[in-house]
Every structure is written in structure tokens, then in C-alpha cells.
Amino acid sequence: MRSSKNTAVGTVIFVASLGYFVDIYDLLLFSIVRVPSLKALGLRGSSLTDTGIFLLNIQMIGLLVGGIFWGILGDKKGRLSVLFGSIFLYSIANLANGFAHSVETYSLCRFIAGFGLAGELGAGITLVAELMPKGKRGYATTIIASVGVFGAVIAFYVARIFDWRTAFFIGGGLGLSLLLLRVGLAESGMFGQAKEVAKTQGNFLALFRNRERFYKYARCILIGVPLWMVVGVLITLSPEFGKVLHVKGAVNAGAAVAWCYGGLVAGDIVSGVLSQLLKSRIKVVYLFLSAAALSIGAFLMADGISLSGFYFICAILGFSVGYWVIFMTIATEQFGTNIRATVTTTVPNFVRGAVVPLTLLFQVLKNLFHGSIIVAGALLALLCILLAFWSLSKMEETFTKELNYQEEW
Q: Which of 115, 244, 290, 348 could be 62's S-S partner, Cβ–Cβ 3.0 to 4.6 Å?
């Protein structure tokens, strides 16, 4: 009996890991193939940049809307239905994106892909956290996140070997192949019990009706913002930072992303294992936030550095914000079973969506300080890091917390 249960849990971890792998592959693929794909559609000059930003924002809007939809569905209908429903949707969108011949079709595919991508990670983390013993939850979520973020590195190399349409086809094919593994997967027992006793499964608005519950929810989001500030601003704009810092060579954004996510893989593994050894999520995030502050400083002061040295700093940056797995686990463990999937699915997508206001604030700061992206980047990073430290100081340690309970409305 124990052997069959372990096999079932192992299969869930395997599928959730590969699902997140394809999730990150698709999420970063657009950033990597943005220029060649839009050039193939006939765009040039400023319209290339403007359309790229528009499509990225469309994808982020899809993530935000999808995060709420899939989260509520996960608490009402089950974690497995969301896990495979989201994989199916973003896989189809990927395949369709490969056939896009107009900006309108491209934007529709990006919205649907974003909508689909919003559900996979939250459902996978929630399901695994509820199936695993409390003392081993960190190991399982570490495997999921570590395998997942490696998808960004693969996306970079696939985009270098194949043309942009084929790269999207590969992503869609990988996702659809995961649906073959659906048979035999186990639903969370905690969800089954909660469904029987709770009348308000997946009540998203209930998060905002209680002040303390809302503050806890907001703090979960703020803890993860530094990660996407690094990826969405510093790494995405690495060619611009490279010019200002007089890096000895032309910085390639795709290469910077690959180096950063390579560091993220290592960071996720180290942070997950460290949390198990220290038996604490909070202490590990404190360590990584401190490392992030130092590595951001190194990035912004790397004047005259070699190109290889610059990419190495990108990897260090990625490692320092490689606490995504712990951040997700903290969010999962903070709330009861009847709202857990909603929280775990919406929190990372609100963090991803924070890229939009972060980039807008970056532009404002840049204009205030006479076009200096170094000052703007430093101030934005300082704000994000301080808010994350403050939020973390107010969080409950959840390493040994039992998850089989309900939120009272």
C-alpha cells in the first residue's frame, strides 16, 4: 500500500515538474523570439519595440485573469482538473502561435497562452504540498521548481537551433504529451475532505473581506516581487544596461536570460534543500534576499566589465533570487484547504504581473533622474527589496505546519 502511494505521489511530482518546465519554456520563449518573429511579420523600427511590449502586456493580462480563474477552479473542482486543463490550453495556444501570420492572431495566442500558463504551477504546488508529509514538502516543491526553471535555458537553445515557429510547435507538442500521463494520478485527499465540509470553496473575494487575511495575502506577493524585478527589468533590459556600463562586447538578451535562469535552477535547489536542513522557510528567504541586494549592487556597478564577466553576474543574480520554490511553498502553507489553490495560483501570477507597474515605475524614475537607468534600477531594486524584507518579517514560519484545515469566513 505504501509503495503504491509513493509511486502515485512520485508520478504527481514528475508531471507537475514537467508541466512547469513547459510553462517556463513558453513564458520566456516569446521574450527570446520576439524580434525575429515580429520581423517575420513585417515589423521594423519602433513598431518592433512597441508591438513587442504590447504583446508582452497582453500575455501578462492573460496571466492575471487566468490566475484568478484557475485558482478558484482548483478549489471548487480539484487540483488535477486545473493542472491538466491549463497544460492543454497553453499547449494549444503554443501550436496556434506557430501558425500566426498577423499581430492580431499573435496577440490572441499570447493572451490564451498567458491564461493557460497561469494555472499549472499553482495547481501542481498545491497538489504536491497536500500529498507530501509536512517534513518533506520542501524536497518535492524544490524538484518541481528546479526542473521547471530549466525550461528557460532549453527555450534559449531551441530558439537558436530552430526558427521561431518550430520553437512554438515544440512547446505545444511537449505540453500535449504530458496529457498522456493523466491516467493514474491521485487527487489531494485534503481537497476531497474540504469539498465535503466547506460551503465557500475558492472564494477569492473572501481574501479581501478580512483585513488580516488580505495583509497576509499581499505580503505573500511582495516577498516574490524582487525576483521578477530582476528578471523583468535588469535581465530583460540587459543590452541597455550593458551599453551604459561599457561592457566589453554586445550583450545578448537571450543569453542573459539563459545565464540568469541557469543561476535560478541552482538557487532553487540550494534554497529548497537549505530550508529542509534549517527546518525554516523564513530564514532561507532572508539569506537569499540579502544575497539579492548584494548581487544587484554588483550588477549596477559592473562598469567596464568583460562580456563573460557580465553574464556571470547575470547568473549570480539568478541564483540570489532563486527562492521561487520557497516563496511558492510559503504562500501554499499560509492558507486553509478551501482557499489554498486560489492563493497558490494567483500569488505567483500577481508577482509576474507586477512587471507591468515595475517597468512603468522604472520609466518614471529614469525620467526623474535625467535618463539614468542605473539610478532608476537602483531605486527600484531598493524599494522591492525593502518591501520584501518587511513582508517577510510579518510572516508565520510554516515548515512544520499541518495543512489539513479550513479558513473560517
A: 115
282: amino acid identity, one letter: I
CA distance 222 to 387: 6
Give kind and range of the element (H or E) at residue 384.
Answer: helix 373-393
Sign of CA pseudo-dihedral 330, 331, 337, 341? negative
Distance CA 1, CA 127 (A): 20
Q: pLDDT, tens digit, for every residue of 217-239?
A: 999 999 999 998 998 889 988 88
Contact in structure between 395 and 282 (CB atoms under 8 Å): yes
Using alpha carbons only, give the angle 127, 265, 215 rounded to the nearest 5 degrees: 55
Residue whose C-alpha is closest to residue 74's, from 204, 209, 216: 204
> Measured between alpha carbons, how far is 306 from 152 in angstroms, rounded to an integer?
24
Assign 248 to helix, strand or coil. Answer: strand
In which residue are the cell numbers 518614471 written? 364
At 18, which amino acid appears? L
Task: Identify any residues that bridge with 308 across adjacent strands, giving them in sequence order.
Answer: none
Q: pLDDT tens, 143-181?
A: 887 787 778 778 888 988 999 999 999 999 988 887 776
User: What angle do the packed helices 253-278 and 2-40 form, to 10 degrees?
Assistant: 160
The domains found in the chain, sorted by start residue, are 2-180+202-393 (1.20.1250.20)
C-alpha triplet 269, 147, 175: angle, nearest 5°: 160
Q: How far is CA 402 from the centre of its chain?
A: 25
Radius of gyration of the chain (CA): 20
Question: Mapping DSSP to helix (H, G, I), strand (E, B) and coil, where does residue 182 land?
Answer: coil
C-alpha grid cell for residue 356? Answer: 507591468
The parts of the chain modelled with pLDDT lower than 70 are 1-8, 181-203, 405, 407, 409
Give the whole-angstrom CA distance, residue 331 versus residue 399.
12
H or E element that contains 243: helix 238-244
237: helix, coil or strand? coil
